[in-house]
Design brief:
heterodimer, A: 13 helices, 79% helix, B: MetI-like fold, 73% helix, 1% strand
């Protein structure tokens, strides 16, 4: 039994540090609901009147509807493509023997460690030559490629520890390897796949450097880059900036609220294993 | 198919970065091979050295402070880390890590702002003049660094809490029977048990510190007087604004080299310990 004193102490320590983690974000939310004059009166005061209109103003003045569409398209296509390809590749690596398997695996491992900075210069000139600079593809293709390395490892790690008897049973029932994968493994791998979905969504949604460099026109610009330009124009209107920031963070935060265990499992488990 | 995408949009760009680093190229006319001259130029370039130095300073804020802090907290709460109620704190501590960096940059830029920011509200409340924290060469870098600390300590704590939960409780009981106090239990049970988690925390936080870009871009653009300039920003300016593509690629190659070597050293260290 853990002594009461030590329990209370643990709670106090963790509560203090959780408070510090959240305070800036909560303050931003309150600021987003204030008027400029109210904010000037003091940053710690609660808003006297909750101005939800700030969100509407920020949304329309910052051109966030176009950006939201771009972010959504890029994130959804990247997530779907990466997850499908990772499941197939992870399954292939864990269940089949083929020549050059180990070197190929190491070759992919390199991808987990490659920072975007090491890719972005050639990507720019490559996409320019292909004529896909300033299109969704310029953001989707490299992000699928980068996330695929992690995704393949993540799925392979799952398949390796999964029991293979089920597979034999399915084979006897006349399932092809792809059929087995789809009918037997995908349902079983649901938690691992969910983790992959939320992680890749988070990475893609938050991505900044690629979107800043590979896309120059407003029609395709994603939310984080749009926010950075919006900040340049409305530097003194903090409530509007805070409202814009809150809206951009909202989808990730909602996803996190529902799947926090999967997020944490992915970030801790994924990296500890690898 | 997965391998084709990975090769085309991750591996080839990486290889191309390495090749480009040996060329002098303005992005338009034909490139000319100049061997290792770009690297020699980087070594002589005070701007690059300053940027790299700032990245090293950021490692203190992104890596060493959060990991030390999280280890200290892990030691304090090791006895009760298994409680179910600890879960809620895990959820809260992780929130900054899932948020888009650009949004965090907008929030913290306001927090440090001399006009309506909370930090300066406290400073002026004590009767002093408002101070431009991000506009001063001595305070700008630590101010951004502390944002890194704020994001990373939750990440490290979650890793360590998860790690402690995996340590066999019998080890703690045995240590207690042997009369080991809290400090000794930390040194001989918790610390060795967290070896994998510490390794991961070091690799992830160091790589993040060496790659800082979003926060600097949003909060200071590298200023004032390049006091918060970083390598990623240097790459961006050199390759895309100044059109010195080869030099930018060389800087990217140096960055990747440092991240790889640091990761290998940390992994080496871990295996030699166990």
């Amino acid at each position: 039994m853990i002594p009461m004193r030590s329990r209370v102490f643990t709670h106090v320590v963790l509560a203090v540090f959780s408070f510090v983690a959240l305070a800036p974000i909560v303050m931003m939310l309150f600021t987003a609901l204030k008027s400029k004059e109210e904010l000037a009166a003091g940053p710690f005061k609660l808003p006297t009147e909750w101005r939800w209109g700030n969100f509407m103003d920020a949304w329309s003045q910052g051109g966030f509807s176009t950006a939201a569409k771009a972010s959504l398209i890029v994130a959804v296509v990247t997530v779907v493509a990466t997850v499908v390809l990772s499941v197939i590749a992870g399954y292939g690596f864990s269940r089949f023997e083929f020549r050059g398997k180990r070197p190929l695996f190491l070759f992919l491992l390199l991808g987990v460690m490659l920072p975007t900075e090491a890719l972005v210069i050639p990507l720019f000139y490559m996409f320019d030559a292909l004529g896909i600079l300033n299109t969704y593809w310029a953001l989707i293709l490299p992000q699928v490629a980068q996330s695929l390395a992690f995704g393949t490892f993540w799925m392979a790690a799952f398949f390796i520890q999964a029991p293979s008897e089920l597979e034999d049973a399915a084979a006897i029932d006349g399932c092809t390897p792809l059929g087995t994968l789809w009918r037997v493994w995908v349902p079983l791998a649901k938690p691992a796949i969910t983790t992959l979905v939320v992680l890749i969504f988070m990475w893609t949604w938050n991505e900044f450097l690629l979107a800043l460099i590979l896309v120059q026109n407003e029609a395709v610009r994603t939310l984080p880059v749009t926010l950075s330009f919006f900040q340049g124009r409305y530097i003194s209107n903090v409530p509007l900036l805070a409202a814009a920031g809150a809206m951009i963070a909202l989808p990730v935060l909602i996803l996190y609220a529902f799947f926090s265990r999967r997020f944490i499992e992915g970030v801790t488990g994924g990296s500890v294993k690898g | 198919m997965p391998l084709v995408i990975y090769t085309a949009f991750a591996f080839i760009p990486f290889a191309a970065t390495l090749v480009l680093s040996l060329y002098d190229w303005d992005g338009l006319t034909s490139p000319s091979f100049i061997g290792l001259s770009n690297f020699a130029d980087l070594a002589r370039d005070a701007v690059f050295r300053n940027a790299l130095g700032n990245n090293f300073s950021f490692t203190i804020f992104y890596s060493f402070i959060p990991i030390t802090l999280a280890l200290f907290l892990a030691a304090l709460i090791a006895d009760s880390a298994r409680l179910r109620s600890v879960r809620i704190y895990r959820l809260l501590l992780f929130v900054p890590y899932v948020m888009p960096m650009v949004v965090l940059g907008v929030i913290w830029r306001w927090i440090y702002s001399p006009l309506s920011g909370p930090v300066n509200a406290v400073i002026t409340a004590t009767g002093r003049d408002p101070f431009p924290i991000l506009g001063d060469t001595t305070t700008a870098l630590p101010a951004i660094g502390l944002v890194g600390t704020w994001v990373m300590y939750g990440f490290a704590m979650i890793l360590f809490i998860a790690g402690i939960q995996k340590i066999d409780t019998a080890l703690y009981d045995a240590a207690r029977v042997d009369g080991a106090n809290r400090l000794k239990r930390f040194r001989f049970v918790t610390l060795p048990g967290l070896r994998n988690e510490i390794t991961v925390a070091l690799i992830v936080t160091l790589a993040t510190a060496l790659r800082v870009f979003d926060l600097v871009f949003v909060m200071t653009r590298g200023g004032p007087a390049r006091s918060t300039d970083v390598v990623a920003f240097y790459i961006f300016r050199t390759a895309f604004n100044n059109r010195e593509v080869g030099l930018g690629a060389a800087a990217a190659a140096v960055l990747v080299g440092i991240i790889f070597v640091a990761s290998l050293v940390i992994l080496r260290f871990r295996t030699s310990e166990s």
